[in-house]
Amino acid sequence: MSDSALTQYLAENPKMTGAVFTLLLLLTQAGNAAAAVGQTISGP
């Protein structure tokens, strides 16, 4: 999906803008949590 098609879709469906924002927020938090766990595990 191109950027213009995505922009047009989100303009036509404002509720999806919030859903996309929430999804990106959750993915960001999950990435930070995974990185934090990776730093605390010591190797052999």
Structural category is: mainly alpha
Query: What's the alpha carbon Rg, rounded to whole Å?
Result: 17 Å
User: How would the global form be characterised?
Assistant: elongated
Instruction: State the end-to-end distance.
Output: 45 Å
Query: Order of helices and strands, N to C?
Result: HH
Helical element count? 2
InterPro entries: DUF7503
Pfam families: DUF7503 (PF24335)
Description:
With 44 residues, this protein is mainly alpha-helical. It has one domain. It is 84% helix and 0% strand. It has two helices and no strands. The longest helix has 27 residues, at 14-40. The protein is elongated, with a radius of gyration of 17 Å. The model has no long low-confidence stretch (mean pLDDT 82).
Provide a brief overview of the structure.
The protein is mainly α and 44 residues long.
Describe the secondary-structure layout.
Blueprint: H1 3-12, H2 14-40
Features:
84% helix, mainly alpha, DUF7503, 44 residues
